[in-house]
Write a structure and sequence with these properties.
This protein has 1 helix and 45 strands. With 533 residues, it is an all-beta fold. Strand 41 and strand 42 form a beta hairpin. The longest helix is centred in the last third of the chain and has 4 residues. It starts with 8 loop residues before the first strand and ends with a strand.
């Protein structure tokens, strides 16, 4: 929202979701009316009434909010960073107290309108030595003396909603002259909107809360604004009037991800002013459901490196980016925008030779806000998975059972031993997220991955590789870690005889039908290829 009066207003709107949720939310800001050009940040304090120890979810239509910290029961502090634009405007800050998790549309909230003035210097020209004053609304600035060249610069604080000032010039003999001055400010945007949560699964049922605050050009609340929505593939409910110029909608996500971003534009036209606000909702594909692994070769030598391509897909079979794929004794890798990742498994020299199975796991992409917990029994302990509404695992979440606390890892999973007699677990920051052990446990940890058969051969000093082509085949010599070697003496045996070659990367042999062998002379490691007629 842009435009507003040089004062502040707190609206406290209570929508209690349950007996354990918050009953009210109140906001204060210090300074109450920050000024661009002087202030870059302000301290935001939030008071939550009721039995709601969870932190608030904070949204602002302009500027940013960070550094949320708990001051005490139901009291929090955050830092509001002013927008970097230079013109005066009015911000709307909303503190949601959702229950039982931060992605819920249930719970109380509070709204704060913040007038943000701009400290600027107004330049001009007048008679040398003249005094210039400027009046803007009820405030007067100056006087400023024109210099020897007739120029002056007058420091002014411009509140939202004021675009025309009055200047009074008094020359050295006392003559006065007044004039109107257009400050060339953009029209006041009299509509501000926020949405929570800002990310939903594309399932056709998940919902978000949308709030819009309307005002006159000085920032005073208006009533009955006819806000129109365009764009986006989701659906809006009918508006609900909450008082003090605030309206609320419920937005339901579409069933398909599409581009992954839904842009909805709210507009409200009053006379010549057309106020517009754009909201963006991210849609999640959901977590990985299948992992397909295609090895480059079925045989790998001890001391070498096994390589493969992995393809991660979601529940609808679509490629999925950002999935963490883990192979034993190797650093995890992420799938790219095509859902693919290159895998490497370093084979120890002492690795048992023969056929074995390699288990590869997949997790993610990572979520950001907890909404669900799953738990299962382990040998003498307990495992837990924390996910968001889309089922994406959420890392670094604190969970407690029987007074023993643990933090989830990058895959959203934690395993630990609760104290004896513990009957339930709960999220530490969001205690409404809880799970009773009696009937609430999974039979096993939910996993996604693939088991791949691998044949481990004896260690070799080098490896000779061949690849068939339409007009013959290509060969090359690799080190045990997969590096292509140059300058190796190689014997190529063909049906018409043997010839000595020197390796230079991949060497192409154009050949007719027959059986061919390629032998590294120093190590006597060979490869055989048959060219079909």
């Amino acid at each position: 929202m842009r435009g507003g009066a040089p004062r502040w207003l707190i609206l406290v709107l209570g929508l209690a979701a349950s007996a354990v949720g918050a009953q009210s939310v109140a906001l204060t800001l210090n300074p109450r009316a920050p000024v661009k050009g002087r202030d870059t940040a302000a301290v935001l304090e939030i008071s939550i009434g009721g039995e709601q120890p969870a932190p608030p979810v904070l949204r602002a239509n302009v500027g940013t909010i960070d550094s949320v910290e708990r001051l005490g029961p139901g009291r929090f502090r955050a830092r509001y960073l002013l927008p970097t634009t230079r013109f005066p405007e009015v911000a709307i800050i909303v503190a949601f107290a959702p229950w039982p998790h931060p992605q819920s549309v249930e719970g109380a909230f509070g709204v704060l309108r913040v007038p943000i003035a701009s400290a600027v210097e107004v330049p001009g020209r007048a008679e040398r030595g003249a005094e210039v004053t400027l009046t803007l609304g009820a405030s007067t600035f100056g006087p400023s003396l024109a210099g020897a060249d007739g120029t002056f610069r007058l420091p002014v604080v411009v509140p939202p909603g004021y675009g025309i000032a009055t200047t009074v010039t008094r020359d050295r003999v006392g003559n006065k002259r007044s004039a109107k001055l257009d400050l060339m400010l953009p029209p006041t945007d009299q509509l501000a909107c926020v949405v929570t949560p800002t990310r939903l699964p594309a399932d056709g049922v998940s919902r978000a809360r949308v709030l819009c605050a309307s005002s006159d050009r000085f920032g005073n609340p208006t009533q009955g604004a006819r806000v129109q929505w365009k764009g986006g593939r989701g659906s809006f409910s009918v508006p609900r009037e909450l008082g003090d110029g605030v309206q609320e909608w419920t937005w339901t996500a579409p069933r398909e991800v599409g581009s992954g971003l839904e842009r909805m534009v709210a507009s409200w036209k009053q006379g010549p002013v057309d106020s517009v606000e754009e909201l963006t909702m991210a849609l999640a594909q959901g977590p990985v459901r299948t992992l397909t692994v295609t090895p480059e070769e079925a045989l790998v030598h001890a001391g070498g490196v096994w390589r493969a391509k992995a393809l991660a897909r979601d529940q609808l079979g679509r490629p999925l980016a950002g999935v963490t794929v883990s192979v034993p004794r190797a650093a995890p890798v992420l799938t790219d925008e095509r859902g693919e990742a290159s895998l490497r498994w370093p084979v120890a020299v002492q690795e048992p030779q023969g056929s074995q199975s390699l288990t590869i796991s997949a997790s993610g992409p990572s979520g950001h806000e907890p909404a669900r917990v799953q738990a299962w029994r382990t040998d003498g302990g307990l495992g837990v998975l924390v996910t968001d509404l889309s089922g994406l695992p959420v890392p670094t979440q604190r969970v407690s059972a029987g007074g023993v606390e643990v933090t989830t890892g990058a895959d959203g999973v934690a395993e630990w031993r609760p104290a004896p007699g513990a009957g339930e677990l709960h999220h530490v920051e969001w205690p409404g997220l809880r799970l009773a052990f009696d009937g609430g446990l999974e039979t096993a940890r939910p996993r996604v991955g693939a088991t791949v058969p691998v044949r481990v051969g004896p260690p070799v000093p080098v490896n000779v590789k061949v690849s068939q082509r339409a007009d013959g085949f290509a060969w090359w010599v690799e080190s045990v870690d997969g590096q292509v070697l140059e300058g190796r003496d190689v014997d190529v045996r063909a049906p018409d005889g043997t010839r000595r070659r020197v390796s230079h990367g991949q060497t192409v042999e154009r050949a007719a039908a027959g059986l061919f062998s390629i032998t590294d002379v120093q190590s006597r490691v060979s490869a055989v290829v048959e060219v079909a007629p």
